[in-house]
Specification:
single chain, mainly beta, 20 strands, disordered C terminus
Length: 424
């Protein structure tokens, strides 16, 4: 008979794409999208409040518009490239309880990317300039002010690709990137219902700046594929969530508390994807994700970083039948290690949970009815119903993750043809 709390979320998006052929020079692509999100958090009613009805404890509504314009020029004397613009504007409003303020933001970026290829060598270089503007309207705990932030920053990258032979490619990328603090990182102040914790922002946060070095190698043969990529990211003013003690005590109980902070960090890791196809239709694959995150300011490991993860699986694709095609099924085992790379004086509210493994299943097919295709797939995760907790899940302080979980998906793409038989 326990009612509330719960969440109610609505999401809708409309997206339009268009392109214009600019003669023999290239193509102009335009993508416009509008997205709306409405989120309600139904907390327990305030004591003795008989007039609240079934209103939520929090309500957030966010509207987002994006515009992407890019012009791609065709190959001219071994050169091909793209110039473009990305723009996004967001408005956020809230009612009832407070977590983050109402705000309005705009971000826009101009970029150019050029590729040169000759023989076995390819070089790619890009330059980008971004501007971000954020205005927040704070009215909370006696603070009634309007705060405005402006950020302008360039970034760039250069990459090299060398074809050692027709089966092995070596590549390396050097680049810079930056990220401005978000509204929640600057102004969060209260209970984050979706994470069952209290978050505290910092208005003095500065933009992050990252310097990356990413070498990798790709090999492909008839029976074997391999993608190996290692990376080193040095990030100045890296923004992260730091658990702090004591927990926040409210009339609802005690809640883990986190503060947004900054530090200089080093993120080193590797992504390794291996795939073997010994016979037709059969694929054996292995995926490894490694991360070593170091806090340079305190000369210790970073807190709240994902542990090492491994996935191994098998997938079999059957031959097509008359009306049923692309039939496949597979099983995989995901193994996540215990996170032992944590600071010596970590203030987290519990030790990292033990390592765990999950058995997953997937299957799917496509049914062709005349010109209409229907895609059907089913996935089952944690088939063995293992009890486990994930290090990055805030709810791990209270409960286990989900047990057996099955999902059925049906996707029906629609195609329209003109009198000239052109598909859209």
């Amino acid at each position: 008979a326990i009612g509330r709390p719960y969440q109610r979320v609505e999401h809708d998006m409309i997206k339009a794409k268009a392109y214009v052929a600019t003669g023999k020079a290239g193509t102009l692509d335009i993508v416009f999208a509008r997205q709306y999100n409405l989120r309600r958090e139904y907390d327990k009613h305030l004591p003795y409040n008989n007039n609240a009805g079934n209103r939520p404890g929090f309500e957030f509504s966010m509207q987002t518009f994006t515009l992407d314009i890019s012009w791609q020029h065709r190959m001219v004397k071994n050169f091909a490239g793209t110039v473009g613009f990305n723009g996004i504007t967001q408005t956020n409003n809230f009612r009832y309880g407070y977590f983050i303020p109402a705000f309005w933001s705009f971000a826009g970026g101009l970029y150019a990317l050029e590729k040169w290829h000759r023989g076995k060598l390819g070089i790619e270089a890009g330059l980008r300039v971004d501007y971000k503007w954020l205005q927040a309207f704070v009215n909370h705990n006696g603070d009634k002010n309007t705060y405005t932030f402006n950020y302008v920053m360039p970034s760039g990258s250069v990459g090299f690709e060398y074809h050692i032979n027709d089966k092995v490619i070596w590549n390396t990328n050097l680049g810079t990137a930056w990220r401005a603090p978000q509204a929640n990182e600057l102004f969060a102040d209260g209970l984050h219902h979706g994470a069952a914790s209290v978050e505290l922002g910092d208005k003095n946060l500065k933009p992050e700046m990252a310097y990356s070095f990413t070498p990798g190698i790709h090999a492909t043969t008839t029976y074997f594929d391999a993608d190996v990529e290692v990376y080193e990211n040095l990030i100045t003013r890296f923004i992260y969530l730091q658990p702090v003690l004591p927990p926040t005590l409210t009339i609802r109980g005690q809640f883990p508390t986190y503060e947004y902070r900054q530090t200089n960090a080093s993120l080193t890791g590797a992504d390794i994807d291996l795939s073997a196809k010994p016979v037709r239709g059969l694929e054996l694959y292995s995926k490894t994700a490694l991360l070593f995150a170091y806090n340079l300011a305190i000369r210790d490991w970073m807190t709240q970083m994902p542990p090492q993860r491994f996935e191994n699986g098998i997938r079999y694709t059957l031959r097509d039948f008359r009306y049923i095609k692309e039939i496949y099924f597979g099983v995989s085992v995901v193994n996540v290690l215990q996170q032992k790379l944590i600071p010596q004086n970590d203030t987290a509210y519990a030790l990292p949970p033990k390592a765990y493994w999950l058995l997953n299943f997937e299957a799917g097919f496509k049914v062709q009815v005349k010109k209409q295709a229907v895609h059907v797939s089913i996935t089952v995760t944690n088939m063995a119903n293992i009890s486990y907790r994930d290090y990055l899940d805030r709810f791990r302080y209270f409960t286990d993750q989900k047990g057996v979980n099955a999902a059925l998906r049906i996707r029906v793409p629609f195609f329209f043809e003109s009198k000239h038989k052109e598909s859209y």
